[in-house]
Amino acid sequence: MGNAAAEMDAIYRVQRHIYDASRKYYLLGRDQLLDSLDPPPGGSVLEIGCGTGRNLILASERYPAARFFGVDVSSVMLETAAASIARHGLAHCIHLAQADAARLDTKPLFGSDDFDRVFISYALSMIPPWREALACAYQAVRPGGSLHIVDFGEQSRLPSLFRAGLRRWLKKFSVYPRAELEAELRRLANETGAELTFERPFRDYACSAILRKPAPVGTSVREFALSEELADHDGRREDGRRPE
Prior knowledge:
This protein is α/β, with parallel strands linked by helices and 244 residues long. The protein has helices at residues 2-15, 19-23, 30-37, 54-62, 75-87, 107-110, 130-139, 160-171, 181-192, 201-204, 221-235; strands at 44-48, 67-72, 94-98, 115-121, 141-152, 195-199, 206-212. A seven-stranded mixed sheet has the order 3-2-1-4-5-7-6, sandwiched between helices. Helix 3 runs parallel beside helix 4. The radius of gyration is 18 Å and the shape is globular. 38% of the residues are buried. Mean pLDDT is 86; it is low at 233-244.
């Protein structure tokens, strides 16, 4: 985690203070991703590459009955996220930890190794071992749950000069759109029996995907969601945590 954390800290040590104000103009599709989450009551949601905490804060306000978790490799971004979450009075329902997305193990961090929803917003394009990060993210999805992704697309339906200029600018921040993302997601879907929805909104400026993991054999998605909701309710203490 050392090299990746140091690189991200160097990029965002100053930028984190203006990140949310500037990124809203070109990180398109993030709010649509949050709309698609729709976690079950009492469900758990994990963001990989949570940055300033912007998405987690908005998601927790939309889905107040869910529990939220976020990981990021950058310690300075996590400092900003923790401060913002505290200002919004959401520290009780959003939990953060430092982790490398390509070596993710959430059990020691949060006491759970799977979640109803996992999402990644404009982070795979910044992770060199992005395939490993994608595999870890999918592994963290609970059976019957879903992985949600939004990131830069190929801009294939946009003017070539715009595309070239955008690529040069993104490169300055170590951002590289993943042309093979759809193929990798389809491979995961085919190998695991998952259902994939893949779109290229904004004339392929962005790409968005939902990969739905199958429920256990012999259980409908609705039945499984209900059983998980009841298990979460019965297994938590009064403080909302599971007994050790």
